[in-house]
Amino acid sequence: MEQKTKLKFWSIVMLTINSIIGTGIFLSPGGVAKQSGSMAPFIYICAAIFAVILALTFASASKYTKESGAAYAYVRTAFGDDAGLYVGITRFVSASIAWGVMATGVIKTAFQIFGYSSADITFGMQTVGFIILMIVLFIVNVMGTKIFSLVSNLSTIGKCVALVIAILAGIVIAMMTGNHMAEVDALVNADGIKVVPEMTTTNFVTALVAAFYAFTGFESVASGAEDMEEPEKNLPRAIPVAIGIVAAIYFGIILTAMMIDPVAMVTSSSVVVLADVFQNPVIKNIVVIGAFVSMFGINVASSFHTPRLLEAMAHRKQVPSVFAKRNAKDIPVNAFIITTLFAIVIPMAFAYDMKGIMIISTIARFVQFILVPIAVIMFYYGNTKNPTVETAKKNFTTDVVVSVLSLVLTALLLFKFNWAGSFSTTTEAGTSLNYFAIVSMFIGYVIIPILVYFYAKKQK
């Protein structure tokens, strides 16, 4: 029998970077700059600090179990099957939504490379491109872990190289043309009203959440732990290393972009906002192609994480066991197919409106960001409902202090977040509630978990 190939330490680091750097850094800067103006680089620093703290918490949790499922496995181990089920199924829904966001970005960027503007891309064109992308990802996955690892590593290197080139070019341009960062704070619209609002606590938090989206993805890396070599040892080391690399790249690209042309960041209608900062066509094309590689790479990562979460739940008989079956290449094909359907249908239902599905995807993660730190504290003190916690080297600072800090920061963000603004739409006729987004949240985080709960109870 052929020995199963598993991801080694640096492949896990690459996968983590690939899971984080994607649509967020290419699409979110405009919205962040519009909320925070010249403070945008500072906002990204704050988002990076928050991400590092949370990542350390998830890294600590990964020491205590070899099970796949990431937050699902941690919460189930700490609180029992019912709590784990809720986190697992809502994680699956949010991960599918996030995959849909990233797939939407890939298709729109591909059309931009071929000269199409956002207005030129029809619903039908987007849908055809979407299905083709999913077929490509299916082929990459069914060819086995070795091929998947190669594609993941190459896309990670490609996106990092493109961003580093943009940073270096930006430094040279900024040295030649000067710092224009303050111009965005004075920008006004046709009615003479300032585009960038005054920096209030609410605006700061809203901008921070938007920036934080660019750092999400680390929480899903452990979903495929059983396909990794010594996950209880390698994951706690790989996740912080990857976050540090990502934070350095993000700060560099946002700072140089804001110094060159912050007004373009705020007013751009392009899919890849960062590309409009650069006037040089060569650099602009490098950024656009880098965005495409980046977004494709994070789709590759999502196609690895999300099906394995469903598979982990199937092993526990909380969802149909058919999703636990693997093919000859040791890939959970059935779980992949149903996940792909979710990732296609949800963006189609939102008519590929990236802002709407991006907000829902981000907010949904906060359930994990509350329960996982509590689980880590329980692991440290040995107070769990499940006796399968692996023997791990305990550390009071990372396991308790950092987890408490994660809880405090998450609570502050949830308290100060602009909930009303995020679930409303503003048009010339005025502002109204986005009922479609509200209903989608209710179905994804109330109705589906209830149905899965009763299925799991019936199986028992």
Low-confidence runs (pLDDT<50, min 5 residues)?
Answer: none
For the residues shown, what is the average pLDDT?
Answer: 80
Secondary-structure-based class equals: mainly alpha
Distance between the termini: 34 Å
The quaternary structure here is single chain
Going by CATH, the homologous superfamily would be Amino acid/polyamine transporter I
Radius of gyration (Å): 21 Å
The CATH class assignment is Mainly Alpha
SS field, number of helical segments? 18
Query: How many structural domains?
Result: 1
Coarse shape: globular
**CATH architecture designation:** Up-down Bundle
Query: Can you tell me the CATH topology?
Result: Amino acid/polyamine transporter I
Work out the helicity level.
55-70%
* Proportion of residues in β-strands: under 5%
Give the beta-strand count: 2
Main sheet: which strands, in order across? 1-2
Give the SSE order as H and E letters: HHHHHHHHHHHHHHHHHEEH
Polypeptide structure, described:
The protein is an all-alpha fold and 460 residues long. It has a single domain, classed as Amino acid/polyamine transporter I (Up-down Bundle), CATH 1.20.1740.10. The chain contains 18 helices and 2 strands. The protein has a two-stranded antiparallel ribbon with strand order 1-2. The chain is globular and about 65 Å long.
